[in-house]
Amino acid sequence: CAAAKTRQHPRLLRHIPACYTGTTSFLLRLQAWPANGAFTLFVELRVEAASRAARLSAGGASPVSVAELAVAMAYTTQFRSAITGVPLSRCCKAFTAAPSPRGRSHTCNVRAQATTDGTDIPRRTMLSSAVALGAATMLPYTAPFAAKANKVLSSDWEEVELPVDKGVVLLDIGFTGSDPNHGFLLGTRQTLLETFDGGNTWQQREIEAARDEGFNYRFQSISFSGDEGWIVGKPAILLHTNDGGKSWERIPLSAKLPGAPLVITALPGEPGQAELTTDQGAIYVTNNKAYTWSAAVLETVDATLNRTVSSGISGASYYEGSFSNIARSPNGDYVAVSSRGNFFMTWTAGQEYWLPHNRPAARRLQNMGWTPANQLWLSTRGGEVLINSKSGIQEEDYKSSGLNSRGFGILDVGFLNADIAYACGGSGSLFKSVDGGKSWKRDKATDNVAGNLYAIKFFKGNGFILGNDGI
């Protein structure tokens, strides 16, 4: 707001400009401190315009400061008392639709939420400057700052604008257990973003403990149990929080750790519990905030395979390499795809070693995971998706789902519920199933998304697809 200045009142907010084509929105966070209580206001301004700029300006004789504008918006917008606990105010027509000079129309919708830690703030006190906010008109105006909005792709998906470089690959996303709207987004180049509105908007975060001269960490995995959270990355790094991500501390990892950390899982129950998995199949468990770790498997994957030369697993003899993907079920079972995709391995609690499996498809494997019914699914580098008709990892009966990927590899599959699922892949490929993965139909919403889609995550009905170039 401080950047939006005018010649007449360089220190006061006179207008909020926006210049877009189509529908867009941006979020303002304004704070004022009146004498009888702290007041915080979140305002989402939505503008629908036709290739011209729309301007919100303040009418009346008095200039409008940032605080006064926040107060005016608060008292001219109906509070959502069920969420904020603030009593309802009168709903005035502070913002109304006005036709443009060409006869087109635009609308300005304001959503405000406010909290106060004192008594009700008198309207007369808050509006002492006699602010009058008028309707906006379409003007040939160049905005002094750019505010990008999320691009609606379909009724199901929208592309979220992120404050990251195009070369960033997003790798994982997680939300705190205490607040489903508060979450973090991870990626390459030490990317860490934070949201407080369920993922609609994101802001950059930097962790002082992760600053290390000469290293640019690749944050790989994040997990929360309540307000306790963990982050792992490459080169080997482990971060921990007890307060929902307000502060993070770095916990040292042994230089002798077999492989690089790939997946971290915050375990429910007593605080300080987590499970760490590396790309060489090492699984470690802690129950004292990483002060000590206990090994869940006796040896790394390559040691297991090289010891069992006659295992009958194609491509497993004298194996040297790592896992490309590891997935953990809610029950604590693991499935992992070899880096070359020529076989996969499973592990369940109590086993001393990983168990190797031949791939059930002619093409090499790309990724594997679980359905809500605890059935394994797998995708191939040729774009095929197979689902095991048997539950768990003991029996195998994989059946093709008939997905036609047009030759693009399927990189991940995510289930919203037992029926609705999505599969994503190269060149913005996206497919939808409404019968639990038995059949698929191409979702054209992402046809114009210029990038590969790597991962699909669902959190209590909200879905996220992560990709390269900051998608």
Keywords:
4 helices; globular; disordered N terminus; 37 strands; 5% helix; mainly beta; 4-stranded antiparallel beta sheet; 471 residues
Short note summarizing the structure:
This protein is mostly beta strands. Helices cover 5% and strands 39% of the residues. The strands form eleven sheets. Strands 1, 4, 8 and 9 form a four-stranded antiparallel sheet that branches. Strands 12-13-14-15 form a four-stranded antiparallel sheet, with no helix packed on it. Strands 16-17-18-19 form a four-stranded antiparallel sheet, with no helix packed on it.
What does this structure look like?
The chain is mainly beta. The protein is 5% helix and 39% strand. It has 4 helices and 37 strands. The strands form 11 sheets. Strands 1, 4, 8 and 9 form a 4-stranded antiparallel beta sheet that branches. The protein has a 4-stranded antiparallel beta sheet with strand order 12-13-14-15, with no helix packed on it. Strands 16-17-18-19 form a 4-stranded antiparallel beta sheet, with no helix packed on it. A hairpin with a 4-residue loop joins strand 29 and strand 30 (385-391). It is globular, with a radius of gyration of 26 Å. It starts with 14 loop residues before the first strand and ends with a strand.
**What's the gyration radius in Å?**
26 Å
Major beta-sheet overview: 4 strands, antiparallel
What percentage of the residues does DSSP assign to strands (E)? 35-45%
Mean pLDDT: 74
Helix share bin: under 10%
Beta strands, count: 37
Q: Note poorly predicted spans.
A: 1-72, 74-147
Global shape:
globular
End-to-end gap? 27 Å
Number of helices: 4
Counting helices, strands and paired strands, the structural category is mainly beta
